[in-house]
Amino acid sequence: MYGHMSMAARSGRLICGSRGALLLLLLILVGTLVVLHRVAQSPLLNQYEILQDHLERQQIQSTRSTRVVLLWNDFFGDPRWKLSWDTLGPQEMRDELRCPVYQCEISNQHEFLPAVELYDAIVFHAAEMYPILRPVPLQRSPHQAYVFALMEPPGETKHRLDDERGFYNLTMTYRLDSDVVWPYGQLLDIETGAVVAPSERPHWRKPPASFNDSVVWDLWSGKTKTAAWFVSHCETLSKREILANRLQEFLNVDIYGKCGTHRCARGDPHCDEMLDTDYLFYLAFENSLCDDYVTEKLFDALHRNIIPVVFGGADYSRILPPHSYIDANRFETVAGLAQYLNFVGGDPAEYVSYFWWRRHYRLASSSPFCDLCARLHAPGFGYKTQSYGDIQSWWFNSCRLESQIRL
Ligand SMILES: *[C@@H]1O[C@H](CO)[C@@H](O)[C@H](O)[C@H]1NC(C)=O
Ligand SMILES: *[C@@H]1O[C@H](CO)[C@@H](O)[C@H](O)[C@H]1NC(C)=O
User: Fold this and answer.
1) How large is the average pLDDT for residues 300-311?
2) Which residues, 6+ apart, have CB-to-CB distance to 261 below 8 Å?
3) For the whole model, what pTM was predicted?
4) Which among 330, 355, 364, 317 is positioned nearest to 207, based on CA atoms?
């Protein structure tokens, strides 16, 4: 009895044991297979194939991709943002705007793509309020970039930026540390064709020891008036009106527009011509003292035969060639500035020397949409995300209330 039982128990244990061993073997086998598979797939053995696969996929993607940009609101009432069409395709980007990277579509038509989260970038003009009927987009994809776009200084911002923390991914402003720089004008080297400025560290040629230009020399003798100032905002954060008033204690400043007594109809060609023929200096005084901020007017003046006297928050050496302008903030006092203006204005050789740069540089304009398009095609875009946590500080901190020259 005992022996029988023990036989059965033993054979039972044997069966149990062999089943267990089988299971264990199976487990080891599966485990080994998994490990072998992982090893086979790991970069340890086939890093080149992994890279190759990736690049092949990438190639398909980058040949396909046209980036699509939506202009969300108007640019000072202009839904086209001064572009020629409601929608620009790669062809217009290449032929009209002359963009080096032109595989983009830019549209102000909100139905251009079927859903708002499909745009690669959405541009918001922050010097204008959101339309009441069209506040911010309702859907947002983590892959798209919201662009903070502004040509005006911070004082003209019409968005409540403390409500827009973490909202924007890219900045597109005149500031040189913007993701996309939107300058009022550019200077190109005539010889090389390269854009020299505005830039954070431009490489300017040195002004020559002596320079003459018969056109400017001849104009100089006809210039009987000292300084012209065209202005429509009479009270400003920069207090430029005080500078102009104090300057008038020392020399004549003719103030055109509603802040002064002189009138010249907008668009009348005589207004521009008299800068060549009558005036020695053109006052390009900015309404706020902000990093890199200069107005279009300064670039307009550079087209004329007149020396600009600049006052603003910019480091002008980032924008204009040396010895092509007179910066009020380089003087401690208004008297010192006036004295220098009288010296330059009274000496034709000195006056003419301020025009040396024209032999080497020319003015040009560029579209920020070219740079935006290039940015959306940059290798990092889509892998690297960025956003501005505190856009208000980024934007507002670039301005000051105090000027260098004592007013
Ligand atoms: C500059 O050029 C003008 C006109 O050609 C000439 O009359 C003048 O003497 C020149 N000035 C100097 C300093 O050479
Ligand atoms: C843009 O910012 C948002 C919000 O911070 C973020 O979720 C998104 O991934 C960012 N996109 C890009 C392309 O940087």
Assistant:
1) 96
2) 255
3) 0.84
4) 355
Residue 123's DSSP bridge partners are: 71, 147
Higher per-residue confidence, 384 vs 314: 314
Distance CA 25, CA 368 (A): 67
Report which of 403, 396, 401 is spatially closest to residue 156, judged by C-alpha positions: 396
Confidence of residue 1 (pLDDT cuts 50, 70, 90): very low
CATH class for the region spanning 186-364: alpha beta
> What is the pairing mode between strands 145-150 and 170-173?
parallel
With contact defined as beta carbons under 8 Å apart, do 121 and 145 qualify? yes
With a 6 A CB cut-off, is 131 part of the ligand 2 pocket?
no
Domain boundaries, the chain: 63-184+370-400, 186-364
Q: Which residue is associated with the tokens 């924008």?
A: 319
Q: CA-to-CA distance for 395 and 387, rounded, in angstroms?
A: 14
Distance CA 54, CA 251 (A): 70
Q: Six-digit token pair at 75?
A: 């640019």
- Is the link from the previous residue into 202 a cis peptide, with omega within 30 of 0? no
Ligand having the closest approach to the CA of 215: 1
The set of protein residues with a Cβ atom below 6 angstroms from ligand 1 is 212, 214, 217, 349
Nearest listed ligand to the Cα of residue 378: 2
- 64-122: pLDDT as tens digits: 589 999 999 999 999 999 999 999 999 999 999 999 999 999 999 999 999 999 999 99
Q: Is 141 in the pocket of ligand 2 (CB under 6 A)?
A: no
**Mode of pairing for the β-strands spanning 87-88 and 104-107:** antiparallel
